Amino acid sequence: MFKIVTDSTADLPKEYLEEHNISCLNLSYILDGVTYGQGKELDPKDFFDMMRAGKMPTTSQVNPEEAKTFLQKLSQVEKEILYLAFSSGLSGSYNSARIAAEEVMEEVPDCRIIVIDTLCASMGEGLIVYKAVQLREQGASMDEVAKWVEDNKLNVVHVFTVDDLFHLFRGGRVSRATAVIGTLASIKPKLHVDNEGHLINIGKVRGRKKSLQALVDYMEEKTAGFTGTNDCVMISHGDALEEAEYVRDLIRERFGIENFMINSLGPVIGSHTGPGLIALFFMGKER
After folding, report:
1. Which of 61, 162, 163, 242 is most open to solvent, judged by the fewest CB atoms within 10 Å of its CB?
2. Phi and psi torsions of 278, nearest 5°
3. Is 0.90 topped by the overall pTM?
4. Domains of the chain, with CATH numbers?
């Protein structure tokens, strides 16, 4: 059976990764002068509390040498590796993994590595991994799963809102004026990840509760006429579990879906969105 690997940016629960024997390449983040992600971790709640206290983290992509070391180690045991990578529209990590895979395959000729740019982030990337695991367990080959991912990755819909616009301003996603005026008027943005894997602002709503309801309205719009299945809907949050559960309950009530995976946003993605993010991921007719 082939090996599935992904990045820490997939934001999947550790229990899920362990249960399905999925290896994870960690991206690094720096907070208060300390580098995390490579064996040293912060609890997500502690991370977001530090951000609330004014600490400003920075992140770094995986470089080719880090990716090569990771894949070399795996290649000693695994002869078929499917790497489902973080969006190239948000990080250079995919390109580092692609370069590393080519070098490892030259050095270990009996090892095949397929690296796919999922054009996904957070639990959108996680949803791709979830679907790949399902197909593998149904007996699909690595090539069959890779083809499914390439054919369906643009059907993975990401929609989210944040509580604090200043973190998006820091990352260049909104202007300072938008952050100031939006904060004063309790304007909450609605954002998604587009077909190039970039973060795009697609609307705004006044008030937190309405912004959460708008996520579910977007799901209704994007799943209308969709012939695929949403056997699992994923929700990630920036230390805002109650609101994530509120979105889950709205979806359950409106669509009758019962299978959800809810998990905390990881620090790498969370560095750019801040605490209070609520993100919804599902399969739809288009992004």
Report:
1. 242
2. -125, 120
3. yes
4. 3-153 (3.40.50.10170), 155-283 (3.30.1180.10)
